[in-house]
Every structure is written in C-alpha cells, then in structure tokens.
Amino acid sequence: MIILGSICWGIASTMIQWLLDHDHASVEWLIPLRLIPAGLVILITLLACKKNIWIIWTEKSAYLQIALYGIVGILGLQYSFMNTIANGNAVSATLFQFLGPVLIAAYITLRVQRLPASIEWISMFAAFLGIFLVVTGGSFHITSLSIEGILWGLLTSLTFAFYTVYPINLLQKWGPALTSGWGMLIGGIFFGLFGNSLNDNVSTLDGLDPFSLLLIGFIILFGTGLAFFLYVSSLRYLKPVETSILTSVEPLTTILLSFLWLAQPFVLFQSVGGLLIVGSAVLLTMGPRTKWARSSE
C-alpha cells in the first residue's frame, strides 16, 4: 500500500509538470481542481462506509484548527509545491518536500530544549548538503534552479513541516481521513474563492484535449485521493522507519518518469543530492526520540 501510494504521488508530480509546461495551465487553476474533488472523494467514501463526517463540526474549538490546517497546511503545501514545479521541476519539488522531516527534527529539538543527537546532526548535514547538490549540480558558480524555484522549494519544506506537526491533536481525535478530507475541501474552496484572481490567464477544461483531461482525472482520483488512503492504511502495519524507507519510492518514481517522459536531465551530483536528502529522512526515524516526540508520533 505504501509503495503504491508513493508511486501515485510521484506520477502525479510529473503529470502536474506536464500540464504546467504543455497546456500552460496555471497553478491557481490546478489547486482547487485538485483539492476540492479529492476532499469530496474522501468524505463521500467515509459516508459510504457509514461514518459520521459531520461530527468534527460539533465542537467549536475545532473550527479554527481545521481551518488553519486546510488553508495553511494543505493549501499552503500544495501552493508552494506546485509553484516549485512551475519555477523548477517535479523532481526538485519532491526533494524539497523531503527536507520537511529535518525541519520537524529541529522544531522538536527547540521544543524540548535539548541539543540534537549525533544521528540528527548527521541527518541535517546530509539534507542540506543534498539540497546544495540538487540546486547547484555541484558547482559554486551556477544554479540548476531559479531563485524563485529555490524560495518556493524552501517554503514547501516549511509548509510540509507545518502540515505534519500542526494537526496532531485533530488527527488523534478525528482520524486522518476525516481531518484531511475536510482540510482539502476547505483549502480548495478558500483558494477557489480568493486565489484565482491572481492569474488572469486561467485555463479551462473546455480547452483541454482528452489526454490532459485523463491526466487531471488521475491526479484527482489516484494522485491525491487514493494515494492518501493507501498511505494512511499502511500505517496500521508499518513502523515509522519502514514508512520512511518505502516512501522514498516517490522521488525515485518522479526522477524516473521525468527522465523517460519529460526528458528532464538529472546529472550525477543532483542524483547524489537526492539520495542524501531521502537518506536524511530515513536516518531521522532511526535516531533516539524524546518522550514528546514519541507521544506525538
């Protein structure tokens, strides 16, 4: 399940890049088109399983939390991730996302007021060295990404960390499916109402060919909805270290498809950088954890 879910995420990333490059679709148009249907699919599936999807709204204290999770967490991550693709490529966006666990480790270190353990220092060094290699290709004189792409990538890392840490209480109380279903729907609707005005040249479904429509359908159903369900379901059977190792299939899928389908070159130093970033995320799950980290896992 975790391998299939990660593959779906990796495929969806390359499909988003294809739509941005070849159909000139805007990020502002793609985001609500992805989040709203995916959120509805999750909630309708829960209804079909006879779950009460409205129970989360019975407590007023959850209103602000779910709104922040949907707008800052889910929407923020999607907006920064897609803009990293638009200003770089799908591979760099996926790798920047894998910096999130490093930021989370730094946050936990500050939260519990302790110095990082040796394996955490190694992980952080490996992650930032990996990003340097991905961004520069191993050269101090050139960058393989634009300044905009780098900034959006760093924002992707930050929003991924927020997306992971902030909803801990919501996830424990309401479950990941219900929380994320409403979060996707709220984030998509919010951006649909206020975000589309950011771009005057918005693509429409009527102007897309059947192949592009097929890609959009895959992104919504498989790259978002199904991938999420497979990921959450796999957590019942896997340990955190196993999850981190197997989710590395996502960047590998993105790199392979970008090379074979999008003819996106990925030089040796960038490949080494990608391995360092993914490896740093795996190392962090193997290191010693504080009581706070274990309880919030």
Characteristic key phrases:
297 residues; 0% strand; 75% helix; mainly alpha; globular
Outline the structure in words.
With 297 residues, this protein is mostly helical. 75% of the residues lie in helices and 0% in strands. The chain contains 14 helices and no strands. The C terminus is likely disordered.
Secondary-structure topology with pairs:
Elements: H1 2-22, H2 27-48, H3 61-87, H4 90-97, H5 100-112, H6 118-136, H7 147-165, H8 168-174, H9 176-194, H10 210-234, H11 240-246, H12 249-260, H13 268-286, H14 291-296
Helix pairs in contact: 1-4, 1-10, 1-12, 2-3, 2-9, 2-10, 3-4, 3-7, 3-9, 4-7, 4-12, 5-7, 6-13, 8-9, 11-13
Distance between the termini: 20 Å
Q: Judging from the principal axes of the Cα atoms, what is the shape?
A: globular
So how many helices? 14
State the helicity in percent bands: over 70%
How many strands, which pairing sense, and closed or not: the largest β-sheet? none
| Average of pLDDT | 80
The proportion of residues in beta strands is under 5%
Low-confidence stretches: 197-203, 289-297
Cα Rg: 19 Å
Helix-strand sequence: HHHHHHHHHHHHHH
What structural category arises from helix and sheet content? mainly alpha
- Quantity of strands, as a count: 0
Write a concise synopsis of the structure shown.
The protein has 297 residues and is an all-alpha fold.
